Amino acid sequence: MTEITREIDGSRGRYVIRRGGEEAELTYSITTPTLIIADHTGVPDSFRGTGAGNALALRLVTDARAEGVRIVPLCPFVNRWRAKHPDWADVFQV
Fold it and tell me: Widest CA span of the chain, in angstroms?
């Protein structure tokens, strides 16, 4: 898997995987220093089957744990992964 870059601009953030001029991303809003809202995951067709979406979600959870942040999973993709991973319950606020 390609490197995941984290970008933060004010109250918005995103995780990005770039490959061949295309981007897979997971975006979020920062509501407080300890709460974010995961609101969108976009994976181009050329990334399908590569595990890009899974890698972005895992990076989100890993960073949230390390930083003591809780996640509200409004993004359907992130919410499905939350439901499949009960071991992630410590970082989600539902």
Answer: 36
